[in-house]
Each structure stands twice: as structure tokens, then as C-alpha cells.
Amino acid sequence: MKKNRNFWFVTPQIAVLLILLFVITILTLCFGGSKQLFIIQLTIALIAAAMVSWRTATMRGDLKQTLENLADKLGGSSAQALESFPSPAAAVSSKGELIYYNDLFKQNVLDGVDAVGARADRVFTGFYLPDSSQSTSVEIRRGKKVFSMSTGRAVGCKSADYILIFNDITELRKTEDEFYATRPVVITVLFDNREEILNFAKESDAVKINGAVQALVEDWVSGTTGVVRKVETGKFIIVVEERHAKEMFEKKFDIIGKAHDIKVDERNYVTLSIGVGRGGKTFKECEKWSVQALDMALGRGGDQAAVKSTSGYNFFGGTSKTVEKRSKVRSRIIATSIADLIRQSDNVLVMGHRLSDIDCVGAAIGICCLARNLGKEAKIVCDTSTSLATPLIDSYIEASGKKIFVKPDIAVNMVDPGTLLIVVDTHVPSLLESQAVYKECEQVIVIDHHRKMVNYIDNAVIFFLEPFASSASEMVSEIIQYVSENSIGRPEAEALLAGIILDTKDFVLHTGVRTFEAASYLRRRGADTMETRHLFSESFSTYMARYSAISQTEFIGRSAVSCITDPTENVRIVAAQAADELLNVKEVDASYVIFPADGFINISARSLGRVNVQLVMEQLGGGGHQAMAGAQLKGVSMDEALAQLRRLIDKDEN
Description:
The protein contains 24 helices and 23 strands. By secondary structure, the chain is α/β, with parallel strands linked by helices. The strands form 4 sheets. Strands 7-8-6-9-10-11 form a 6-stranded mixed beta sheet. The protein has a 6-stranded parallel beta sheet with strand order 14-13-12-15-16-17. It has a 6-stranded mixed beta sheet with strand order 18-19-20-21-23-22, sandwiched between helices. The relative contact order is 0.05. Helix 12 packs across helix 17 (about 470-485) and helix 13 (about 360-375) runs parallel beside helix 17 (about 470-485). It has 5 domains: about 10-70; about 75-175, 2-Layer Sandwich (Beta-Lactamase), CATH 3.30.450; about 180-315, Reverse transcriptase/Diguanylate cyclase domain (Alpha-Beta Plaits, 2-Layer Sandwich); about 330-535, inorganic pyrophosphatase (n-terminal core), CATH 3.90.1640; about 540-654, Diaminopimelate Epimerase, Chain A, domain 1, CATH 3.10.310.30. The chain is elongated.
């Protein structure tokens, strides 16, 4: 190891301070200062300069002696072996101090700078010494260089504890980075409300709109090395490199917002759904993931981007209130298929989600009645002791005289190879009333109106998901009409109507033309709106608890947040109703009520459509619908849950 004869023992800062001291001394004399003061300042400056000079001289001697001692301690044979080693090598102490290194280390790793006695973790990024005596290899950095560092215990050295061997892998990492940056990403873009938009446009305007959409997509890709091809009207396939796809992600797929500027009128604008396949081993796998991601985006209501990669799904957009996109033809075909499967089964079990509400139970009653009219034994799997729809269950049993509700532990024993399970008002296995019943059934049908979540039931024979339907009860009402209009009576009609009323908040939220058509059909089947309203009656204590929760509301931007801390009867119902009530306050776009129940901190979220509360709740592990969602947090306090929610609201509003 060569000595560095140009080493700075006096730091530039000290030298500058000495110069300033002499300058001030001279200025004191030049601008009429006292001679006595000048002599004092000059004396101080000279003493300081002398002390610095003396310390510099002694430091040179001290350093020389230190280097000689270190070399002696390392041992002549060890130092010679290290110097002749064909790769950059260094010896360090147990404290990580550099004791000795060869010329290759100094030139190739340290770039010619001396670092004897310096701590290695201050010289290199990512440096650490192993805890065990076994040799290890880690990747560390110095400036723009990347090294693979092998560490082993020093043998035969008097003061060194570890020997470090370095290999420069900078070019290898550059090649690797370039490899990953050029991986293909397949993107499928769909003009998802094309039919609805063109219904409002003249023929000439339709051509302009289609052209504007194509120009927007092509312009979006033009700044990359990717290619775009139109596979059919309103649908495009794009292949770009990972480096450019990453830029699209960072901009949160701003093409979705730009598409809204293409309008027929103030209320009708273009929406795009985007599916991205990223990180697949082959083009074919990326294309497959892209199609799956597009299906996921559409299942969540469209007007958003879904990205599928090896780590799962990510979503962008989905915050606007899109128009209803449902096909009666599709509903009729699915209704026929459901009826055929019911006829082919030995028996039918109908099941909803845990803590079932009126919409869940109402839809289950409708499907159960349909199956019975098709000649099959049918039961509803429901834990009535935890259901939030007890008034509806009691009212239906009293009005119909049918005992169709069975507990999950009994339902498991009713499953045989010919059993058909129909899941309503949810499509997530973890939310089912009984996962044991679900796992035992070989044939499953899903009927749900919530936006599609990642961990959905993926083995369903029929997966009927309509995120634009107001409720599961509305969907079941349509199915019944297409199969057999007369298959339900007054009790079933009132149960279904109650479900629609609950999820639409008295036909205010998420209501479309077909919602009123379903309600009209149920009215014809004898549903009494006054009797249905009685199902929503509540006790005075529940009424007071709701307004107590509302009185504790705080406002975060345009969101209202309330915490229920005191034990309250029917706390879930109270929280949901309080969240609904808060939407009546001016300048409130979303409401959240936090409450403890069943060992969890729960959040009930509502909105009028301007805020997609589903996206907020998904970040907390929950889900739901654009205007109605929820989440359960385990292992956190109320204050911690409030803090997490506050951060998400601030992030969403900013």
C-alpha cells in the first residue's frame, strides 16, 4: 500500500477561518481601528496559525507511526499475500475499520483515495460485517460503482478480524437493469361505454368520437418505443417496454382522465377500461394477464386501469360516477342457465355473507323460492343469531310459514355431490357465512352487485357480477322474472323490495332504470311498501345512539368521520345509519363511522358517488361498492384506525 504524500491534515474549513482572521485583523488597522486592538488581534491570529502548524506536523508523525504499527500487527506474510492478491482486497477490524488494503483496492474501489482507519460503513453503502464465522457475500455500492463483497474471517493476522474481497459488478448490474427495463408489458385498452355514448351522438359525431379515442390512445403511446394496434372498434392492444410502462404507472394512467374530455354533452363522456399484464415470463402470459386485468377493471365498474403482475393486482382510477352498462339479453341468458342448473341439481343451498343484511337475506329468499318452484329442495344457510336482518327473517317466517333457514353447521351435513350452492350479495370466499359449506360444494353460482375484488370466487360455474345493479335483490328480481314471473308471492316480493330499498337508500343512491322496473314487478307481486317500511323500524335506544354518533363527527376536508366508543346495542346498524345520515350534511362527499365489534375495529363508509369509498376501504383490507363499503382492522386501537383513515382521506383529497 502506497503512502499518500498529499493528504490534507488541515481541513479547508480551518484554513479558511485562519485567512478570515488575518483579513479582519488587517481591516481593523486600515479603517482606523485602535492600534492596541490591532496588536491583540494580530497576536491571536499568529498564535492560532502556530498551533495549527504544530498540530499538522505532529499529526504527520502520528499517522506515520500508526501506519507502521498497523503493518507490523498485520504481519509481513499476510500483508504480502494481500498485496499480491489478484482482486481488490482489504483487512478490517471487528469494528469495521479499514486496517490494510492492496493497491487494486485503492485504485479500483477507493478511486485512489486513502481510507486507512476509516469505518467501512461510511465508505460504502450497504456495508455490514457478518454475525457468524461463515463466509458471506453481499452487494455494496460506492458512488456509481457496484461491488460483490465476499467476507471471511482473517486467519494468522494479529489485528485484522475480517478479509474483504471485492468484485466489480457494475456492468453486470447495468446489463441486468437494461434487461428488466426492456421486458414486454401488454396493455389492453377498451372504449367501455362506446354503445352508450354513441346512442347520444349523430352518425358524423360518432365517427369523430371514435377517431378522437384512437388518436388519444396512439398519442399516449407515441412517446414510448411501444406499438399499438386496433383489434376491433374501440379496442386496442399495446406492447411497451417496462421502462415506459413504469412511467404510465407513475402518472396513474392519466389517459383515463383525458378520455373524459371527449364528450357528447356535459353528462356523457368517454370512459376507458385498461388491463395491464406485467412481469410475465412470455408474451403469451403477459397477454393472458392483460385480458384478466381488463375483466377485473370491467367487473369493478370500468373507467379504470387494473394491473396484474406476479405480486397481484393494482388499480388506478375508478373515481368517476359512470353510467349504467347492463344488458337485458345477458341477464336473460344467465337466468336461463341458472334455472337449468337448479333443475339438474339434487338440492340447493343459498348463502350470503357473514352478518347478513336485508339485501343479502332478501336476495337469498328470492332464489330459495325460485328453486322450490322449480321442484328442488332449497335452504338458506344463515346464522340468524348474528344476522343484521332479524326483523326480515322473523317477518318472512311468520308471513310464509316456511322454515327455510338453517345454521351453517347443519348445512354442511346437507351437502352431497349433487348439491348446488348459490352465493348472493358477495363474491369473496373469506366473507361467506360458512367457508366449510362452500368448500364442500362442487357446483357454485355467484350473484352479486359489488365491484369485483381480487380474491374472488374463481371456481363458479356461473359468475354473475353486475356492479351497476343497485342491489343483489334487484338482480334476483330480474332472474325470477325471466324464469317464472309467478314463482314468488307477497312475502318474497316484500323481502326483495326491502333489499332494494336498503341498498338504494329509498331509491336515492345507485338507482337505474332497471331498479324501478324491478320494484314495479315486485309491487305487482303484492309487495306493500308500508309493510316493507316496518322492517326498518328501530328502538328508541338505537335511534338515540345513532344521533349520539353523529354529534361526535369531525370533518376532514369534505369527509365526515365519527367514532363510536361507548358500547351500543346493534352497533353495526347504528354505524351504517349514522354514515347514511351524515351524507345529508352540506359539503360532505363521503362519511366514515368507526366502531369496535367482535374483536375488530370496523369502519362503515358511504358516499354520494363523488368519492369512491371502495378504493379507500380496499387500502385497509376491506371493500364494497363505490358508494357503500367497509373494512375490519385487527390489532389496532380506535385512535390508530382513525389515524390510518385520516392519512388515506388526506391522500385521496390531495
